[in-house]
Automatic annotation (TrEMBL), chain A:
This is ABC transporter permease. The keyword Membrane applies. InterPro entries: BPD_transp_1_N (IPR045621), MetI-like (IPR000515), MetI-like_sf (IPR035906). The chain crosses the membrane at residues 12-34, 104-127, 139-161, 201-221, 262-284, 311-334. It comes from Reyranella soli. The lineage of its organism: Bacteria, Pseudomonadati, Pseudomonadota, Alphaproteobacteria, Hyphomicrobiales. It is a multi-pass membrane protein. Pfam families: BPD_transp_1 (PF00528), BPD_transp_1_N (PF19300).
Length: 341, 535
C-alpha cells in the first residue's frame, strides 16, 4: 500500500509540472499586459525625470521585448532567483522565506480551530436534523460566511482589544517590545516550544488567537455544512441501520462508522478551504498587520511590482499541488478502496 | 512581563541604575513606538523607488552637511527653509560673487563605527550624489551641483563647492534627503567593480553618522533604531530625548488609530481623516495639525490638447468649481484654502502657494465657455488614483456636479496607483486630480519644478516661454528685489493662464500620545524623531 501511495504521489507531482509552467507563463504575461509601468511608479521621486525612468527600466530588464524577458525569467527561476521586490527592497526569495511561515502558521491554526468547531457542529446538526441546534448551526454558519473578514476582524479587535483589553495589540506576530524566537522553523509556536520559552509561546499564542478566530469564522460554514450533509447521507445508509440492529453503542456507531465514512467529502473541502485561506487571507493579514505572504503580494500588485506577484502565484500553485497530493493520501487512509484505483 | 526586559540593550544604563520595575517603566518612556501604513524599502534614500518612509528614516540615521531650522507657526513647529544650519558642517562662508561655498566640518564628528569624519568622506559622498545612477543626481542639478570637479578638499576639515553660476538653491540642496554623508572607508570596502558607489550594499546597510543607529530592519514589518550617543550634529549639543525608536508597519488605519488612542503607540502620521476627531477627544492621545506649507492639492488640465489648450476653458472650469463644498466634504476643512484670493491681477506678495483669486461663479464660467467656442459645453474624463480616494472621491463627485451645471459632462475614472502614475507620466490624462509637495518651498522652485519643461512633474504640460525665462533669471538672481519681482510675475502668469487649479494645502495630521512633544512638520512629510521628547 505504501509503495502504491508513493507511486501515485510521484505521478501526480510529475503531472503537475506542465500546469506550474503554464501558471508561470500566464502570470508573467498578465502582469505585463496590466496597465501600469513599475519603472514610472518607482521612479516617481521628487525631481526624477524621464532619464531616471529609462535607467530604471533598463536595470529591471523591461526595455527588452516580452519573449526575451520571459526566457530570461524562466532561466533565472530555474536557478532559484526570483528577482528583487521593489516594494521591500529585498530579494523575493528572502521575503517569502520569512513571510510564508507566518501565513502557514496562521492558516493552520485557523483551520484547526475551524475543524474543532465545525465537525461537532455538523455532526450534531445532522443528528438533530430540523431541531433548534440545526437552525442555530445554520445561523452561525451563515453569519460567518456573510460577514467579510475585515469586518469581523475589526469587530473582534474593537471588542477584545479596544474595549475589554483582553487581547494584546493586534499588530504582528508578537508584542513589538518582545523579541521573536530563534529562527528554527519560522513557526513561532513551534520555535518557542522547542527552545522551552513558554512565556514567549504564550505571548505568540495570544497574538495569534484573534486573527485565527477571524479566519476560522469565515470557513466554518463550508466545513460544518459539508459535515452535516455527508453525515445525513451516511446515517441513512444500510450499514448504520445494521449497526443499530446489532446493538452497538450509539457513540461507536456515530464516531467509528458514520463519521469515518462521512469524512471523505469533508477532507476534500478541507483541502480546498486550506488553499483558499492561504491566498485569500489578505484582509486578515492587513487588519492584524500579520507579516504574511498574501498582504505582501497585494502590496506588490498595487505597485505593479512584477517579481513578488509572479513568485507568489507560483508559490500558491505549488502549494495547491501539494495540498491536493496530501488529500489523495488522506483519502487512502480514510477509505482504503481509493488507493486501489 | 519578563519579555519586556528586552528593551534593556538601549536602556541598559537606566536598568542598572534604577533596577526593577521603575527602570522598566523608564525604558518604555524613553522608547518611541511609531506606527505607519507604509514600508521602509531601502536604507539608502537615493535608490530608485525609495519610499517616503525611507526618506524619514534616512534623515534620522544619516547626517547631511546642512539642515533647515524650524520656526513656530501658530502653536506648532514647522521647518524653516530660510534658516540653514550646519549639521556635519560647523560653519560655512560664501564668496562675494556667490560662486564658492567654503565648508568647515565639525572637529568632533565621528561615524557610527567610531572613525572620524573627514573632508575626504564628504567629497566622496558628494561625488556619489552627482555620479551614481540614483535619484540624488537629478535633484542636485536643481542646485547646479553636477560634477565631481566642483567639490575640492582644502584640508582634512575643510572643502569648497564651486558653482559655475550663483545658483540660489545650491546650499538648500545639501539639506535634502538625498544629500546623505557617507562613511566612505566603510562604503568602499563594500563596493565592487560594477558597483563603485556601494549602492547594493547600502540598500541594507548603513555607513552613517546621524542621530540614530539602525539596530534591526525587517522591511514591511519593523525597524528598530538606537540613539547614537556620540552624535556630533546635535543642535546645541543636546542629544535627542528618545533612546530607542520602534518603527512598525501597521497597514490598517483603524488599528493604528486604536493603538494611539489606547496609548500603546506613541505616534502615527497617516491616520484616516475619519479617525481624527476621536483622537482629538481621546484621553491619552492628541492631534498636532498644521497645513503642509510646501504642498498643494490641485486639479490639472492638459494644456497641450483640446479642449483644455484654451486658457478660457481652463478659466471657465476654475470659475465653475464649488470650492467650499469640496473643502468641507473632502478634507473636513482641515487645511488652508488656496482659492478665494482677494487680489485680481497682481498678488500681494511673492510667496507661493498662496490663495489664487478663484471663486465659484457659474455665470462667468458659462460666459467664458461661450467665448471659447463651447456654448454647449463638452465631454471629458476626470481621473484620480485609488490611493487618494478618501479625498479625491468627494472632490470628483462635486466636480462632476458643478461642471454639469455649466454643460461640461465628466466621466470619473478611478485608477490604481501604478497606472495613474504611468498615465500622468505619459501625459495621457486630459483632466485629473493630484497632490504635490516641493522639498524646497521657494517660489521660483515651485514654478521651475511644476510649470516648466517637459517632465513628469509638469502636471498640466504647461508651456510658456515667459515662464521659462523668468525661472531662469530667478534661479541665478542675486538681487532680492529683482528675484521677488520675477516671482510676482510668475504668479501673475499662473493666474492668467490657469494651467492647473489650486484647491488647498491639506493639513499634516500627527496623532501622538499626550506626553509626546516637539513634533515638527518637515518638508519630506515624515516624523523627525530627533526633535521629539516625552514631557
Amino acid at each position: 500500500m505504501l509503495a502504491g501511495i508513493a507511486r501515485r504521489v510521484g505521478r501526480r507531482l510529475l503531472a503537475s509540472i506542465p500546469a506550474l509552467l503554464g501558471v508561470v507563463v500566464v502570470t508573467f504575461i498578465l502582469m505585463r499586459v496590466l496597465p501600469g509601468d513599475p519603472a514610472t511608479f518607482f521612479a516617481s521621486g521628487p525631481s526624477a525625470g524621464q532619464a531616471e525612468i529609462e535607467e530604471l527600466r533598463r536595470t529591471m530588464g523591461l526595455d527588452k521585448p516580452i519573449p526575451v524577458q520571459l526566457v530570461r525569467y524562466l532561466g533565472e527561476i530555474a536557478q532559484g532567483n526570483f528577482g528583487r521586490s521593489m516594494t521591500t527592497g529585498q530579494p523575493v526569495v528572502l521575503d517569502i522565506k520569512r513571510r510564508l511561515p507566518a501565513s502557514l502558521e496562521l492558516t493552520c491554526v485557523a483551520l484547526l480551530i475551524a475543524l474543532v468547531f465545525s465537525l461537532p457542529l455538523g455532526v450534531f446538526a445532522a443528528l438533530r436534523q430540523g431541531s433548534v441546534i440545526d437552525h442555530a448551526v445554520r445561523l452561525l454558519c451563515t453569519l460567518g460566511v456573510c460577514v467579510p473578514t475585515f469586518v469581523s476582524g475589526l469587530l473582534l479587535i474593537y471588542a477584545f482589544y479596544y474595549l475589554l483589553g483582553w487581547a494584546p495589540d493586534p499588530t504582528a506576530r508578537i508584542d513589538i517590545f518582545a523579541s521573536p524566537p530563534p529562527d528554527i522553523t519560522g513557526f513561532y509556536l513551534i520555535d518557542f516550544a522547542v527552545t522551552g520559552d513558554w512565556d514567549g509561546w504564550w505571548a505568540a499564542f495570544r497574538q495569534l488567537m484573534l486573527p485565527a478566530f477571524t479566519m476560522a469564522l469565515f470557513v466554518l460554514a463550508p466545513l460544518a455544512r459539508m459535515t452535516r450533509a455527508s453525515m445525513l447521507a451516511v446515517l441513512g445508509s444500510d450499514f448504520i441501520r445494521t449497526a443499530h440492529a446489532m446493538g452497538l453503542s450509539r457513540l461507536r456507531i456515530i464516531v467509528a462508522y458514520a463519521l469515518r465514512n462521512a469524512l471523505l467529502p469533508v477532507i476534500t473541502i478541507t483541502g480546498i478551504v486550506f488553499s483558499t485561506m492561504l491566498g485569500a487571507n489578505v484582509l486578515v493579514e492587513k487588519v492584524f498587520s500579520w507579516p504574511g505572504v498574501a498582504s505582501y503580494a497585494l502590496d506588490a500588485l498595487l505597485a505593479s511590482d512584477y517579481a513578488p506577484v509572479q513568485a507568489f502565484v507560483l508559490l500558491m500553485a505549488s502549494i495547491f499541488v501539494l495540498v491536493n497530493v496530501t488529500i489523495d493520501v488522506l483519502y487512502g487512509i480514510a477509505d482504503p478502496r481509493v488507493s486501489v484505483a | 512581563m519578563k519579555r519586556r526586559v528586552l528593551l534593556q540593550s538601549a536602556a541598559g544604563a537606566a536598568l542598572l541604575a534604577g533596577g526593577g520595575m521603575p527602570a522598566m517603566a523608564q525604558s518604555r518612556a524613553e522608547t518611541l513606538r511609531y506606527v505607519t501604513g507604509a514600508t521602509i524599502n531601502t536604507l539608502d534614500t537615493t535608490m530608485f523607488g525609495a519610499t517616503r518612509e525611507s526618506f524619514g528614516l534616512s534623515m534620522n540615521v544619516y547626517d547631511r552637511l546642512f539642515r533647515f531650522g524650524r520656526k513656530k507657526v501658530a502653536d506648532y513647529w514647522v521647518f524653516d527653509p530660510d534658516k540653514i544650519e550646519g549639521e556635519l558642517a560647523k560653519s560655512y562662508s560664501i564668496s562675494p560673487d556667490n560662486k564658492v561655498i567654503t565648508i568647515t566640518l565639525r572637529d568632533d564628528a565621528t561615524w557610527q563605527d567610531g572613525s572620524p569624519v573627514t573632508a575626504e568622506d564628504v567629497k566622496w559622498s558628494l561625488d556619489r550624489a552627482v555620479s551614481a545612477k540614483s535619484l540624488a543626481a537629478p535633484q542636485f542639478t536643481t542646485g547646479s551641483l553636477t560634477s565631481v570637479d566642483q567639490f575640492k578638499i582644502v584640508d582634512p576639515k575643510t572643502l569648497t563647492v564651486t558653482l559655475e553660476k550663483p545658483d540660489r538653491l545650491a546650499l538648500a540642496n545639501l539639506c535634502v534627503c538625498y544629500a546623505i554623508m557617507v562613511n566612505s572607508k566603510l562604503a568602499k570596502q563594500n563596493a565592487t567593480g560594477e558597483d563603485p558607489w556601494a549602492q547594493e550594499w547600502m540598500k541594507t546597510n548603513t555607513a552613517a553618522s546621524g542621530a540614530y543607529i539602525v539596530e534591526s530592519h525587517k522591511a514591511g514589518e519593523s525597524t528598530v533604531l538606537r540613539r547614537n550617543d556620540k552624535w556630533a550634529g546635535a543642535p546645541g549639543g543636546t542629544l535627542p530625548f528618545f533612546r530607542r525608536i520602534i518603527i512598525q508597519t501597521v497597514p490598517e488605519p483603524a488599528t493604528r488609530a486604536n493603538l494611539v488612542e489606547r496609548g500603546d503607540a506613541d505616534l502615527s502620521i497617516d491616520l484616516a481623516a475619519a479617525d481624527l476627531p476621536t483622537i482629538e477627544k481621546s484621553a491619552k492621545a492628541k492631534l498636532v495639525s498644521m497645513p503642509q506649507t510646501n504642498g498643494f492639492t490641485h486639479v490639472s488640465m492638459n494644456t497641450q490638447a483640446a479642449p483644455f489648450d484654451n486658457p478660457k476653458v481652463r478659466k471657465a472650469v476654475a470659475a465653475a468649481l464649488s470650492y467650499d463644498d469640496m473643502f468641507k466634504a473632502a478634507i473636513f476643512e482641515r487645511g488652508r484654502k488656496l482659492y478665494d484670493g482677494t487680489w485680481t491681477t497682481t498678488p500681494p506678495d511673492a510667496s507661493f502657494p498662496q490663495p489664487i483669486p478663484n471663486k465659484a461663479d457659474p455665470a462667468l464660467a458659462k460666459k467664458l465657455l461661450a467665448e471659447a467656442g463651447f456654448p454647449n459645453g463638452f465631454s471629458t474624463t476626470f481621473a484620480f488614483n485609488v490611493g487618494a480616494a478618501a479625498t479625491a472621491e468627494p472632490v470628483a463627485a462635486l466636480l462632476k456636479e458643478s461642471l454639469g451645471k455649466v454643460g461640461i459632462q465628466v466621466e470619473i475614472q478611478k485608477k490604481p496607483d501604478a497606472e495613474f502614475n504611468t498615465l500622468a507620466s505619459e501625459r495621457k490624462m486630459p483632466f485629473f486630480m493630484d497632490g504635490a509637495t516641493a522639498w524646497l518651498p521657494y517660489t521660483y522652485y515651485f514654478f521651475y519644478l511644476y510649470f516648466t519643461r517637459e517632465q513628469r512633474w509638469n502636471f498640466s504640460s504647461f508651456k510658456s516661454t515667459k515662464m521659462e525665462e523668468l525661472t531662469l533669471d530667478a534661479r541665478y538672481q542675486t538681487d532680492k528685489a529683482k528675484y521677488d519681482d520675477d516671482c510676482l510675475k510668475m504668479i501673475e502668469i499662473f493666474n492668467a493662464e490657469t494651467p492647473l487649479i489650486m484647491l488647498w494645502q491639506p493639513n499634516h495630521d500627527a496623532a501622538m500620545a499626550k506626553s509626546v512633544d516637539g513634533y515638527t512638520y518637515q518638508f519630506y512629510r515624515q516624523a523627525d524623531f530627533r526633535d521629539l521628547k516625552r514631557v
